[in-house]
Amino acid sequence: MELRYAYGYVRVSTDKQEELSPDSQEKLLRDYAKSNNIILLEVFFEIGISGRKADKRPEFQRMISLAKSSEHPVDVILVWKFSRFARNQEESIVYKSLLKKQHNVDVVSISEPLIEGPFGSLIERIIEWMDEYYSIRLSGEVLRGMKEKALKEGYQMVPPLGYQATGCGRPFIINEEEFKIVNYMADQFDNKNADFTKIARNINSMGYKTRRGNPFESRSVERILTNPFYYGLVVWNGVSFTGRHEVRFTKERFDMRMDKIQKQFKPHKRRDISSCRHWLSGLLKCGSCGASLSYNGSNRTSPGFQCYKYSKGVHSGSMSISEKKAIAAVYEYFDKLLAGMDFEYEYRPPKAVEQLSQHDSLLEELDKIASRESRIRLAFENGVDTLEEYKENKERLKRARMDVQKQLDELCGAPPSQKPPKEDVLARVRTVYDIIKNPDVDYDTKGAFMRGLVEDIVYDKKNSRLIFHLYIS
Q: Do residues 154 and 169 touch, judged by C-beta distance below 8 A?
């Protein structure tokens, strides 16, 4: 029998699965390798991790990366059962195909021997399907049990920052050290008008980390500040009840914060002002390609804005404007508005809490679709998918993107009858104008007020003008 080299992969979802213990799996793999003329180079362990998502398994990813290397270190990957390799049939097929077609590496289940040929492949797919079905069914049973517990007003979710669990469904208690961070976030947003990005940056500079040991991000700050648990409402999977845990924020303060957030219109992917270098950053757009004009403040003699895609060769012809000209054009436009010039504006109605959640979910779905598009393109380029399969998957994702975008457009649509009068817009114009012309006001404040009135400013270089798009919420 020809000598072969192998990696072993051991995975258990929890440390309570005695029949699937890591030691037992490793022993079976080593016994199999010894009996089949296989040298087991290394065994990779994944403890307490689900097999549903490959990107959540670092040791699995490390093993695949080594197996794909040009040195061809192994001929086979050994697992106790195919369910240890993956419980998601789609990912299982992708990784097995990639390993086999491109690197001549087989995945072998030592307890589920397969015969050669099409019938063996069919049996393997059936096993994978049953593993995924078991995983989904188990997940459903767990969810049902958790919902039953929630209906009985039991605490079962992961405690939010500032709280810790006490077990047996009892109310969470406050963790004083963590709650200092929550207090700081609330004070900065409610009283200092700091945006989520600035709050995250300040917290990170103080040396604080999330519970997983990672730096805070703007979205993690937003999740904390919009969590009703902090004023006493426990929400889990559609079930809500007034909790019995200690709270230090009132519902009135939470409602005022949510009202403030709901009235802040923010186009998709626009950065918070605290992450920008100028109060006009993120507002100025290229009239040729629609990209943002980046601020170049390093040129002290003539600082200005330039389309960042121009430097990448997306379009010919520089699309730049000096800082001095841009600011002068903004002042001139506001002067004309206040002098009686006619103008158009959009109404961006405040979103309810449920709408905000749905809006964020739809944006996340768009990001996921973009990730899938990259993945199917990679699968095609690596020879895993044929051209026909790639075209079919691409068209499917295109339809999914259009459907999500339609939902997003409907959610953002404004009933014409609710549109506020121009007088309200002009009142805001006066306020913003006073702020941006005041030399004692910092850039963050100027940028925040501008973004509360101006959706974007398109630079039409050909006609040497700026086109303003105003809104009110």
A: yes
Please state, in angstroms and rounded to a whole number, the distance separating the CA atoms of residues 363 and 456.
20
Q: For residue 286, what pLDDT is reported?
A: 92
Containing 293, the helix (H) or strand (E) segment is strand 293-296
User: How far apart, in whole angstroms, are the C-alpha atoms of residue 12 and residue 261?
Assistant: 42
Q: Which residues of 18-38 are buried (b: 16+ CB within 10 A; e: fewer)?
A: eebebeebbebbeebbeeeeb
178-205: burial string, b at 16+ Cβ within 10 Å, e else: bbebbeebbebbbeeebbbbbbbbbbee
What are 19-33's pLDDT values in tens digits? Answer: 468 888 899 999 999
- By the 10 Å C-beta count (0-12 exposed, 13-18 middle, 19+ buried), 226 is classed as middle
Grouping H, G, I as helix, E, B as strand and the rest as coil, residue 40 is strand
- Count Cβ atoms below 10 Å from residue 223 Cβ, excluding itself: 14
E strand or H helix that includes residue 408: helix 387-412
What average pLDDT does range 435-463 have in this prediction? 90
pLDDT for the residue numbered 364: 75
CA distance 402 to 391: 16
> For the sheet containing 345-347, what is the strand order?
284-286, 454-460, 465-472, 345-347
Residue 442: is its pLDDT beyond 90?
Answer: no
